[in-house]
Design a protein that fits this description.
alpha/beta; TIM Barrel; 2 domains; five-stranded parallel β-sheet; three-stranded parallel β-sheet; 50% helix
Length: 468
């Protein structure tokens, strides 16, 4: 019986161990998609407690707590930090076989040097030890934790109307780790609620300096902001969408739809889809013209629990995997951009693993030889962000594309303690390849190629692909 989470955690063969310890582990981190709060980096924020840095905003843990029968007061309510942490410590033993159990102990070990198992008996000593480091050790600030994990670049997620003042402040401070913005324009196509949409468009007009009276004006205002983001180092866009939109439309139709929704009238489903299709196309064109990489996170059904959405708002643990069949629309969207030479580098993340092979085959339709892996299959995302999900994604990509050209892992997290997800991914990758070598599925003579492959997927591919 192996010890829990020893140095060869997840590494089942000698080859896997060599690949990880001699190659993957030494590579820096490029975290090209995250949800860190830029102000915390700019201010070099010092966390008040382990509860704040570990449980605050972590809807993965919140879902587990609720599933374990913990009252909302101890999750997002007014219970004390210690009471909330105590409930988490009581829940952890019930998370066996959930990736949260692994992440929890990886974070304790790599950030705090704590090898104890978290449970009700150890909760207080772990809480006190971590709090002491967070409050007193100068290396446990936001920037210090980024340094601890050898982070080289992070890309946050930012709305077109954001000032990016904290990105600018961080850059001017001389902080050696790059924090770059990512263009996330979802609200510009959220026409389901006319009042919210008009409010957003009015703010867009204000920050862009463009008077908006038409859809063409919306596009112009967004182009102004797109250029501003580019000037601040932005190299990626990101779209969180339930599905792809690629309906046929005319410019006259879109102008009429804009006038209708901006005037406060509800749109039909057909009008909503056409407007989103027009907006997605314009975003794709902008990204191609600036040489950005566009990302699509698709397939989530969000805010399923209306009662809790009204109480807590979005991103609080009430989202799930959807069953959207969007392959034809995805293909049509990419084909439209490709046909006018406006298809930029692209990463596709599917939330439903049943679409792994769909996405893996879609990539090959639009590779054009302009760069290796121009169209990428994104790493296992959200509910697939665990060993099984990562392996399924990499197996599909291996069978139907080129795993060697994969740009690898990202945290997709709000937490400064989430960087061990890169380690978790790298161990999984090395185990997958190590098993193939030892099973005779990859010739041992190619071990040098495999070692290079591990370093490329861990770091080099992302560095070369994004050109930060």
């Amino acid at each position: 019986m192996k010890d829990f989470m020893d140095e060869n955690f997840l590494l089942q063969t000698e080859t896997a161990q060599k690949l990880y310890h001699e190659h993957a582990a030494k590579m820096p981190i490029i975290d090209y998609h995250c949800h860190l709060i830029p102000k915390m980096v700019a201010d070099d924020y010092r966390f008040k407690s382990l509860t704040e840095i570990w449980l605050g905003g972590d809807h993965y843990k919140w879902r587990a707590l609720r599933s374990n029968g913990v009252a909302e007061r101890f999750i997002t309510g007014n219970a004390s930090d210690w009471e909330k942490f105590e409930k988490w410590a009581e829940t952890v033993p019930y998370t066996l076989r959930n990736p949260l159990y692994h992440w929890t102990h990886l974070e304790l070990r790599t950030a705090f040097g704590i090898n104890k198992i978290l449970n009700p008996k150890t909760a207080k000593e772990i809480y006190d030890e971590c709090n002491d480091k967070l409050r007193n050790d100068p290396s446990f600030t936001a920037r210090g934790l980024m340094r601890r994990y050898h982070v080289e670049v992070v890309c946050t997620t930012d709305d077109p109307i954001d000032s990016l003042e904290y990105h600018i402040q961080t850059r001017k401070s001389g902080f050696e780790i790059k924090m770059l913005p990512t263009w996330r324009p979802d609200k510009a196509m959220a026409v389901e609620n006319p009042a919210d949409f008009r409010s957003y468009i009015d703010k867009l007009a204000e920050v862009s300096g463009v008077t908006i009276r038409s859809f063409a004006d919306v596009v112009e205002a967004l182009r102004v902001r797109h250029q501003f983001f580019a000037e601040q180092g932005c190299r990626l866009s990101d779209h969180g969408t339930e599905e792809f939109f690629a309906e046929d439309y005319t410019n006259a139709e879109i102008e009429q739809i804009f006038n209708k929704v901006y005037g406060g009238k509800e749109l039909t489903r057909e009008e909503i889809v056409k407007y989103k299709s027009a907006m997605m196309f314009e975003f794709g064109v902008m990204d191609a013209e600036t040489g950005w990489t566009q990302q699509f996170h698709y397939g989530a059904i969000r805010n399923n629990n209306t009662k809790m959405f009204k109480l807590l708002g979005p991103d609080t643990g009430f989202d799930s995997i959807g069953e959207v069949n969007t392959a034809k629309q995805m293909s049509k969207y990419f084909d439209k951009l490709n046909s006018c030479d406006k298809l930029t580098k692209t990463i596709i993340y599917n939330l439903n693993p049943c679409a792994n092979e769909v996405v893996a085959t879609m990539l090959g339709n639009f590779q054009d030889g302009s760069c290796p892996g121009k169209i990428q299959f994104g790493s296992g995302w959200w509910f697939c962000d665990q060993k099984n999900g990562m392996e399924k994604q990499m197996n599909a990509l291996s069978l139907l594309g080129l795993l060697s050209r994969f740009v690898g892992m990202l945290t997709d997290s709000r937490s400064f303690l989430s960087y061990p997800r890169h380690e978790y991914f790298r161990r999984t990758l090395c185990n997958l390849l190590g098993n193939d070598v030892e099973n005779g599925e990859i010739p041992y003579e190619e071990i040098g190629r495999v070692e290079q492959m591990v370093e490329d997927i861990s770091y080099n591919n992302a560095k070369n692909f994004f050109k930060f």
